[in-house]
């Protein structure tokens, strides 16, 4: 599923015009892809002049990079080594909790009979 990096989007609307299923709209001057309408054709990715629309694999790398930047910024504000350790442990607990939620959701989705 394509994803829009709002920081890069320049509101040119080329993706909106190119989308064959009208799955992209402008919200507060930035492109937004409606997941339930998107057919993953990739035309928006190809037409974007500033590469603001990312593919699935790129999204994972981008999100990891953003998480690390955020963690480093938080660590810079921490005063001493012990508070930095607590911060890292807290973030790890939060990520583990999110991981459990995702695993549980995936397990339950597989059980749904259509």
TrEMBL record:
Q: Where is the 4Fe-4S ferredoxin-type domain?
A: 1-28, 29-58
Extract the InterPro entries matched here.
4Fe4S_Fe-S-bd, 4Fe4S_Fe_S_CS, Fe-S_Ferredoxin
Pfam families referenced in this protein's UniProt entry, alphabetically? Fer4_10
Q: Which PROSITE patterns match?
A: 4FE4S_FER_1, 4FE4S_FER_2
Which keywords does this chain's UniProt record carry? 4Fe-4S, Electron transport, Iron, Iron-sulfur, Metal-binding, Repeat, Transport
Its name, as the record gives it, is Dissimilatory sulfite reductase (Desulfoviridin), alpha/beta subunit
**SUPFAM superfamilies to which the protein is assigned, alphabetical:** 4Fe-4S ferredoxins
Q: Mind listing the GO molecular function terms for this protein?
A: 4 iron, 4 sulfur cluster binding; metal ion binding; oxidoreductase activity
User: From which organism does this entry originate?
Assistant: Methanolobus tindarius DSM 2278
């Amino acid at each position: 599923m394509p994803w829009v990096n709002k920081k890069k989007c320049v509101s040119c609307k080329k993706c909106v015009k190119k989308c064959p299923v009208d799955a992209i709209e402008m919200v507060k001057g930035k492109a937004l892809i409606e997941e339930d309408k998107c057919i993953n054709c990739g035309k928006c990715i190809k037409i974007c002049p500033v590469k603001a629309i990312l593919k699935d694999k790129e999204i994972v790398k981008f999100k990891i990079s953003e998480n690390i930047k955020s963690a480093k910024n938080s660590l810079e504000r921490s005063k001493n080594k012990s508070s930095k350790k607590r911060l890292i442990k807290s973030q790890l607990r939060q990520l583990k909790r999110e991981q459990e939620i995702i695993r549980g959701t995936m397990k339950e989705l597989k059980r749904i009979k259509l």
